[in-house]
Amino acid sequence: MFCKNMNNLKNITKTTLSKEWARLDRIDYDYQFKNGEWKRLSRECYNRGNGAAILLYNVERQTVILTKQFRMPAYENNSREGMSIEACAGAIDNNDKPLETIIRETEEEVGYKISEAKLVLTAYTSPGALTEKMFLFVAEYDENMKISKGGGLESEDEDIEILEIPFSEALEMIKKEEIIDAKTIMLLQYVQINKLLIPEKAGI
């Protein structure tokens, strides 16, 4: 059950450890376990704000738009996985709404101008360490909506390759572990479960 007010949590203190790109905090707190015992605990939380992602899909062509870019944390975990295939996504600025963010990011990253999108899921990406919540959208696209080459902003050091992939192939890429980004897998499976596109072969 979702609890807004937690009576088993008190005396929260926060110490900022780093604030170079996002903010890394150490949070100390008293937590009461189910057996009634209180303990002083400490956790590190990485706060980079919330984000939004979108899967563009074309019903007539049975295709989706994805991106490919280098991700240092993925490379650090496994050097063969540094180039990550993902749905278009971006960080939500302080005063922006998720929809405003994803409309802007869609144009910047993949070059398509959309006026609306459907919010289908919200999810924490790694709630044990990150404060980030992702707002996940879907929207249809066609070639008339293409207004630029995309690729991201040079001012943000983005170097993004745009991929138009058959939906059936994207599902196979999940099975082959060629797509291993969580938000992208969730969006592809949402499209599959809700039959927004019909893959040529049975998916995962």
From TrEMBL:
Keywords, ordered alphabetically: Hydrolase, Magnesium, Metal-binding
Name this protein carries in UniProt: GDP-mannose pyrophosphatase
Stored InterPro entries: NDP_pyrophosphatase (IPR004385), NUDIX_hydrolase-like_dom_sf (IPR015797), NUDIX_hydrolase_dom (IPR000086)
Positions of Mg(2+) binding: 89, 105, 109, 158
Gene Ontology, cellular component aspect: cytosol
Organism: Winogradskyella thalassocola
Domain Nudix hydrolase: 47-187
Assembly mode: Homodimer.
